[in-house]
Design brief:
By secondary structure, the chain is mostly loops. The chain has a 7-stranded parallel beta sheet, with no helix packed on it. Helix 1 links the parallel strand 6 and strand 7. The longest helix has 5 residues.
Length: 196
């Protein structure tokens, strides 16, 4: 008779992580890291290290992070970054180094402005900025040549930069496919209300 495999150990989601400290970590094969839904107030700058060369998806949503370290810019293979429902007021200029990024979720923070470097994210398709405190957008926003969805509702925007029109002039294929849909810009209200 064949030996039966022992059942997999149960997995549990750690949901009360408040801080962590990193000495030296080597995670060269890691492609997805989910630290969402904890009580993190910061990401140690030594944590986001260049040894995470294959990291494609980083989820840090539903925490209390108020500052993103500049070292996030070293995650150049990243395609998805979730920072929704945190306490961010600014993003580091190094966010512009994430040239493979196709999804950036920043809803429900306290962002007042975006760095000009956001305009170099030419692979970015989905940008969610709802429920922040944005009063303006950088003129470089017109450089987001792959953008399909831009969500701006519940901010303090009085006007959009003229370069936003450049996003609507993107060439469309002769026969639209689900991957080449036209740009959707949604602005629901001018309210800066923020829910915790």
């Amino acid at each position: 008779p064949r030996a039966q495999a022992s059942p997999s150990p149960p997995t549990q989601k750690v949901s009360s992580l408040k801080a962590f400290h990193m000495a030296r970590v080597e995670l060269p094969s890691l492609t997805y890291l989910n630290l969402s839904d904890n009580c993190l107030t910061e990401i140690p700058s030594g944590f986001i290290i260049t040894s995470m060369v294959k990291l494609k998806k980083l989820s840090l949503g539903f925490n209390k992070i108020d500052k993103l370290p500049a070292s996030v810019g070293s995650l150049t293979a990243l395609t998805s970054l979730t920072l929704a429902d945190n306490n961010l007021t600014v993003l580091p200029d190094e966010i512009g180094n994430l040239v493979e990024l196709s999804e950036l979720l920043l809803r429900s923070n306290f962002l007042k402005e975006l760095p000009d470097s956001i305009g170099v994210l030419s692979a970015l398709k989905n940008l969610d900025l709802t429920h922040n405190a944005l009063t303006s957008l950088p003129h470089t926003i017109g450089g987001l040549s792959s953008l399909k969805t831009l969500l701006l509702g519940h901010n303090l925007l009085n006007a959009l930069p003229p370069e936003i029109e450049d996003l609507g002039k993107l060439p469309l294929p002769s026969s639209p496919s689900p991957s080449n849909q036209p740009l959707i810009i949604m602005i629901f209200s001018q309210s800066g209300d923020h829910q915790d």
